[in-house]
Amino acid sequence: MADQADSSQNPVDGESPGLLPPPRGVDLARAALAAAREANAQRRQAAGRTPMVRRGGAAGLRRRRWSGPGPDARDPQPLAATMRTWVRTAGTGADLTKAMLFGRWAEIVGPEVADHCVPVSLVDGALTVQAESTAWATQIRMMAGPIVKRINDQMGDRSVKRLTARGPSGPTWRFGQRHVPGRGPRDTYG
Fold first, then answer.
1. Which residue windows does the record flag with biased composition (Low complexity) (predicted)?
2. Which of 48, 99, 136, 168 could bridge across to 116 with cysteines, CB 3.0–4.6 Å?
3. pTM (2 decimals)?
4. Domain ranges of the chain
5. At what angle do helices 144-155 and 93-103 cross, to 10 degrees?
6. Following DSSP, what letter does each residue of 131-168 receive, concatenated?
7. For 116-172, how does the pLDDT look when each residue is reduced to its tens digit (9 = 90+)?
8. pLDDT computed for residue 148 by the predictor
């Protein structure tokens, strides 16, 4: 017993007897947090407000929103849902829709319409169709509503917002969406 009393009074590693080592790391952070809470409580009392009551029992721990038995974003997801999320965030959804529409064109619109026109472009929901004659271009324009509805039923809502039908056209020297207005190549034609 005398040995225990003597060992508690002997300084260890240069410490003064009866003093604790200075707080470090997590202990220092906890002490700073407790001091901030105390200062906040004193400020609230001085202003006449009631002190805040912490939830979660004596330990003061708060439940996190994602804990519990319900589904959570951190749960394993099906591969199809993960792929849909990736396609949406990567911005490849429009290209994928275009490729699927062009590949399944005859199946979606039917063989009669598919024999007389082909899809040319799909940009921002505007589908452009090239018809084999002006009569078929007119017919496609009149059937645009049901065709767009059929496409959206097959490909997903709002895949195509409007349909434009063009008839056959002569050769053009315009490439891309931007061009410089002018006469064009006139020296070849007379």
1. 29-49
2. 136
3. 0.47
4. 90-166
5. 110
6. ESSHHHHHHHHHTHHHHHHHHHHHH-TTS-SEEEEE--
7. 999 999 988 899 999 999 999 999 999 999 999 999 998 888 889 999 999 988 777
8. 94
pLDDT at 81 over 50: yes
Nearest Cα residue to 139 out of 174, 105, 163: 163
Cα–Cα distance between 133 and 80 in angstroms, integer? Answer: 42
| Spatial distance between the Cα atoms of 104 and 110, rounded to a whole number of angstroms | 10
- State how far the Cα of 151 lies from the Cα of 103, in Å rounded to an integer: 12
Whether 109 and 150 have beta carbons less than 8 Å apart is answered as yes
Q: Which two tokens stand for residue 9?
A: 């009074």
CB 166 within 8 A of CB 131: yes
3-state secondary structure of 41: helix
